[in-house]
Design goal:
The chain has 224 residues and is mostly helical. Helices cover 78% and strands 0% of the residues.
Length: 224
């Protein structure tokens, strides 16, 4: 097996999951409780990676990060290097591509918390932040954990966006899914089979864990 690609994929998945958790908590809170009429537009943008072909999303990200785009030029002027075909570019693409796998479980878990508990906390003088930390987040732990596990597993196995944005640079952007593709192209089936079996086992464990957590999500705490 290509252990270098496996280590890079694990690091990418861990950083992507951490970034998504930081960005996802406030965004999911807003989606769960906002009454804005245009909220459906934000929901559509967040869910778009679920239906958009990975190569299409990768192409647009590549154009947005390229040196001819304002963002790409600003990044190059600031850090002295380009984003495409770098680990940083890969991380940014992975965060956007895995966004719905974090946001949707979080928003569903937040929305399932009994509104009466939240309003009781406000009536007792607690701020929105303290209410979130002491009421909403503890009661949504199953949804938060589901989002973390799904985001990690999805990033670990992504292919199309990774290939479009990161290319295939060993030690920098070559992830485990691209390593399998290379091994199959070279007819080196034995290591490809071992690596594929590893990803298959991880995927099975993730789904088993996720469905086990859903049993807890069906029983939210209520005032009644």
């Amino acid at each position: 097996m290509d252990w270098q690609a496996i280590r890079l994929s694990l690091g990418l998945a861990a950083l992507t999951t951490a970034s998504l958790l930081i960005l996802g908590l406030p965004l999911a809170y807003w989606l769960a409780y906002s009454r804005r009429r245009w909220k459906f537009l934000v929901e559509a943008v967040v869910a778009m990676p679920l239906v958009l072909p990975p190569t299409v999303l990768g192409f647009y990200l590549l154009m947005a990060m390229g040196p001819r785009s304002p963002f790409g030029r600003a990044w190059e002027n600031l850090f002295g290097r380009t984003l495409p075909f770098s680990f940083e570019g890969l991380l940014l693409a992975s965060v956007l591509y895995s966004l719905p796998f974090m946001i949707q479980p979080l928003a569903a878990a937040f929305a399932a918390v009994d509104r009466g508990l939240i309003e009781a906390s406000w009536c007792l003088g607690e701020s929105r932040v303290r209410t979130f930390l002491r009421v909403i987040a503890p009661l949504s732990w199953a949804g938060i954990l589901t989002g973390v596990v799904l985001s990690f597993a999805h990033t670990l196995g992504e292919f199309g966006v990774v290939l479009m944005v990161g290319g295939n640079l060993p030690g920098r952007t070559r992830t485990v899914s691209i390593a399998i593709y290379d091994q199959v192209q070279a007819m080196d089936y034995a290591p490809a089979a071992r690596t594929a079996a590893l990803l298959l086992g991880v995927s099975f464990l993730v789904l088993t864990f996720t469905y086990a957590l859903r049993r807890h999500q069906r029983k939210p705490w209520t005032l009644i």
